[in-house]
Amino acid sequence: VSDTAFQVFIVMASRRLMCDRFYTEDFRPEVYTKEGIEWIQDVDLRTVLLRHHPSLKPALDTVPRDNAFMPWRWPGTPGTPCRVDSDCNSNKCLWTQSVCA
What we know:
Layout: H1 3-19, H2 34-42, H3 45-52, H4 57-60, E1 72-73, E2 81-82, E3 84-89, E4 92-97
Antiparallel strand pairs: 1-2, 3-4
């Protein structure tokens, strides 16, 4: 992805969020249930990843809760960033631990 395309994506993503009434003027108890508001406030990228791929928990436990974009580390290999590879065949993704660099 080019630098320009990335910048356009970032600008448009923030505008889409700011224009979504459910994140702005309708983000209130009269529209959402208490549980719905708590769900939105408590969910972040890390929790979404863990909900769909619980096998990533050992790696995600090594990053701060507020920033799942930091390098992940697999237990037993302190200080070495790792990546998670996926093998997507027939619409089924199998997440596996890769060799640490």
